[in-house]
């Protein structure tokens, strides 16, 4: 199976139907979250979310988005989980989604922008206004246009009575700081941040907690042997990242349909930002599906060139490295 030979077609209804917690978080709950005893903010975050959910009223009839312009949501409209990589923010976001009454939606920031692009802004607002809860994972400001788009969308949803929950690695009032300096952009961020209760979660990346560093690269023979397993994909790294340029990122999840393990030959350090950002999206979709990786070439902690790790997208790259290292560990026995 070669990912480079796939060009999936993803209808709009599938884009909407798939906006639920990914398979890795399909069965998580507050009870399955394991707070670090040395980080009291983790246990406190669980209690904040339980209290937030306990204050919800009996489900009411969804309102059309245009019927409540200027109205405030009943109760606390939003919660924002802020913290570093691997402290369990997505676990808690998905746990809240599972515990909340429906209808409800779970999407990454990128998936939300893709959805708006597929449906159109007004159609997306109308469709999402029927939900009681919208969860947005990894809210990041890499592009001011996307930020204005999503912040406007969330403002419409808030006015329609939809409760909002988000995660990121930066406090809402600080999003975009140090990247863009335009007054209009910062005003958009501040307007959005006022409607979230920020909950800080401290701690170290659980994927590295007590675990070894990134596993070394495998031999080409190891990769070829792993590729013989049922459901394994097998591609050369350069061929794959060139193919990704021809596939819309909203289809990267479908690109992995039926894949059980990802095998890559000759992984190389990337210094092109466009290539790197596409790899970030693919890494997220692989991590969502908990796909072990067996790869030769450089180890994943060397995937992105140092200048990329010092730029405005560094948070995306560090998250991708953390996730790929975790998947490479899962592939060490294959």
Automatic annotation (TrEMBL):
InterPro entries: ATPase_AFG1-like (IPR005654), P-loop_NTPase (IPR027417). GO terms for cellular component: cytoplasm. It comes from the Bacteria. Keywords: ATP-binding, Cell cycle, Cell division, Nucleotide-binding. One of its GO terms (biological process) is cell division. One of its GO terms (molecular function) is ATP binding. It holds the Pfam family AFG1_ATPase. The keyword Nucleotide-binding applies. NCBIfam families: ZapE (NF040713). This is Cell division protein ZapE. It comes from Nocardioides iriomotensis. The gene is zapE.
């Amino acid at each position: 199976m070669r990912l480079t030979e796939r060009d999936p077609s993803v209808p709009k209804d599938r884009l909407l139907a798939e906006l639920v917690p990914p398979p890795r978080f399909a069965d998580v709950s507050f009870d399955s979250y394991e707070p670090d005893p040395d980080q009291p903010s983790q246990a406190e975050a669980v209690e904040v979310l339980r209290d937030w959910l306990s204050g919800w009223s009996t489900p009411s009839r969804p309102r059309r988005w245009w019927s409540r312009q200027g109205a405030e949501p009943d109760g606390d409209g939003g919660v924002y989980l802020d913290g570093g990589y691997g402290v369990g923010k997505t676990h808690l976001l998905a746990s809240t989604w599972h515990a909340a009454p429906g209808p409800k939606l779970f999407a990454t920031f990128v998936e939300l922008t893709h959805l708006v692009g597929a449906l159109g802004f007004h159609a997306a607002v109308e469709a999402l206004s029927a939900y009681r809860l919208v969860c947005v994972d990894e809210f990041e400001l890499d592009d001011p246009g996307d930020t204005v788009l999503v912040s406007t969308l969330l403002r419409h949803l808030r006015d329609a009575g939809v409760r909002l929950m988000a995660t990121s690695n930066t406090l809402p009032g600080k999003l975009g700081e140090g990247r863009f300096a335009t007054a209009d952009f910062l005003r958009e961020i501040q307007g959005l941040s006022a409607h979230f209760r920020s909950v800080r979660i401290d701690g170290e990346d659980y994927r590295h907690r007590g675990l070894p560093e990134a596993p070394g690269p495998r031999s080409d023979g190891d990769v070829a042997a792993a590729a013989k397993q049922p459901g394994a994909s097998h591609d050369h790294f350069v061929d794959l990242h060139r193919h990704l340029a021809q596939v819309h990122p909203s289809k990267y999840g479908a690109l992995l349909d039926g894949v059980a393990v990802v095998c890559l030959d000759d992984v190389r350090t990337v210094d092109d930002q466009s290539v790197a950002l596409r790899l970030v999206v693919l890494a997220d979709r692989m991590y969502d599906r908990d796909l072990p990786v067996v790869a030769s070439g450089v180890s994943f902690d060397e995937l992105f060139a140092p200048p990329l790790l010092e730029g405005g997208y560094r948070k995306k790259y560090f998250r991708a490295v953390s996730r790929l290292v975790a998947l490479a560990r899962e592939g060490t026995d294959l």
